[in-house]
Amino acid sequence: MGRRLLGIWFPRLASEASLRRRPVEGPFALVLRVGNADQLHCLNPDALAQGLHPGMALANARAICPDLSTRPADPAADGAALASLRRWAMRYSPLVARDGGDGLLADITGVAHLFGGEAELLADLQDGLSRAGLSAVAAIAGTRAAAHALARHGGGIVPDGRLAQGVMHLPVHALRIDGATAAALGRAGLTHVADLAALPRAPLARRFGADLMMRLDQLLGHQPEPVAAEPDAPHFGVRMTLPEPIGLRDDVMAGLERLLGRLCDHLSHHQHGARRLRLELSRVDRETVTVEIGLARAMRDPDRMAALFAHGLDDIDAGFGIEAMRLTAPRTEPLAPGQMAMDQAGQGGDALADLLSRLGNRLGFDAVLRFLPVESLIPERSFHLAAAAYSCGARGFAWSGPARPLRLFPPQPVTPTSEPRPGTPPAGFIWQGQVLTTLRAGGPERIAPEWWLDDPDWRTGLRDYWRIQTHQGPRLWLFHTPQDPGWQVAGEFA
Questions:
Q1: Which single residue of 24, 265, 296, 336 has CA 20 to 30 Å from 154?
Q2: Residue 476: what pLDDT?
Q3: What's the per-residue H, E or C state across the chain?
């Protein structure tokens, strides 16, 4: 038995997958940003019937078809859809590989008789895809290149032993050669595979390159081309079916701890750590209760994970009992093996991660923020806020300039009780209804505005900052703007 390969092409996979999620009536296209212009990426049949085509500028398409509905293209979603189809196509072969971004290739050698023959296998394939609302063209041939080319040029079946006769009608660009070579062959009058097969090989190779000969040999089976299916991504999930329904919180925690141990072993084997965990509890009445937690950083420590589930399990309704438990890690990150930290620094890092996880699960991970330093002399721009769970604290950052106040706030005007001498802060002033007198003063620290940024608060020009210790206790940060006379408070020291 000769080798048999199945090629499947999805000409409108991106648009049909998008329409399955959100149907739209009439002409529809996905739009992809290319350079500074929007271009049509994938269209439905109604849009194609209007004369539109992939690669057309969106402005031109709207001029031709004002009723065109569009959405931004999502290459990641298209890849996920093709991955799902690859798993589905494994019902026809244990070896299924991607063929570009819109096709699949399966080795069906010795499989077709299980479906009644190759024609029946193709009919079953087309029927399944049609029920899913997907357009596809399939072909079966003896080589990978032939299956690929036939699927994109009408489909069909090339019987075993008749490969050469079955591919001679194909155009030369079906050989997977670059556009420049295909155009050069067309100018020479070589438009089909049959035209190439009838000519001597040496002159063709000298004129059009060795790649053309390699592609022709792959098509005709003279040069092998393997089908390499990428391994499936690991699935991080474990389940447990209970012999008797349970309902007590302690029993659920005991089952969860066993599931966590198995899941963490699986994560460790693949050198991954969980960032989100989902516990699904199947009740006797066929209802499912879900408890989901997030983690501030990737981890695979069962004890620490179990502690984070404790709050969520307090509120579950076990109904008439829980008969099955399923634990999955829908979001993971690579986590290399590391030595357990026994020093205080390592324990402190774990404690901080646990604290952020607890706060994040209660308040939302986007609501727990941390300050990160920014290289700027402007006090208001010397930091920015970031979600603590999705950022790392600054390490090795040391401020080498003058001391900064513990608390910064928008400038508040003060009223001097007497006219200060030039170049010195006021001896007394009124701030927030308090009459304060200066005990010690340090400064000035002159800060100029960042000229490359337009900040309305700094349009008055440079500022002279002073550190003021008052007799009454407050330690304030005052500044004076020479171009706009007046004193203001911008912060308070500890």
A1: 24
A2: 93
A3: CCCCEEEEECCCHHHHHHHHHCCCCCCEEEEEEECCEEEEEEECHHHHHCCCCCCCEHHHHHHHCCCCEEEECCHHHHHHHHHHHHHHHCCCCCCEEECCCCEEEEECCCCHHHHCCHHHHHHHHHHHHHHCCCCCEEEEECCHHHHHHHHCCCCEECCCCCHHHHHCCCEHHHHCCCHHHHHHHHHCCCCEHHHHHCCCHHHHHHHHCHHHHHHHHHHHCCCCCCCCCCCCCCCCEEEEEEEEEECCHHHHHHHHHHHHHHHHHHHHHCCEEEEEEEEEEEECCCCEEEEEEEEEEEECCHHHHHHHHHHHHCCCCCCCCEEEEEEEEEEEEECCCCCCCCCHHHHHHHHHHHHHHHHHHHHCHHHCEEEEECCCCCHHHCEEEEEHHHCCCCCCCCCCCCCCCCEEEEEEECEECCCCCCCCCCCEEEECCEEEEEEEEEEEEEECCCCCCCCHHHCCCCEEEEEEEECCCCEEEEEECCCCCCEEEEEECC
For the domain bounded by 5-136, which CATH number is listed?
A: 3.40.1170.60
**pLDDT tens, position by position, 403-415:** 888 888 888 989 8
The arithmetic mean of pLDDT across residues 140-148, rounded, is 94
Q: What does the pLDDT read at residue 396?
A: 64
Domain map (residue ranges) of the chain? 5-136, 168-220, 237-334, 407-492
Its pTM surpasses 0.90: no
350-366 mean pLDDT = 76
- Residue 289 scores a pLDDT above 80: yes
Q: Please give the Cα distance from 488 to 72 (Å, whole number).
A: 50
- Alpha-carbon span 148 to 99, nearest angstrom: 8
More confident residue, 382 or 156: 156
Token pair of 426, please? Answer: 């006021």
Q: For residue 189, what pLDDT is reported?
A: 92
Q: Which residues pair with 383 in a beta bridge?
A: 373
CATH superfamily for domain 237-334: DNA polymerase, Y-family, little finger domain (3.30.1490.100)
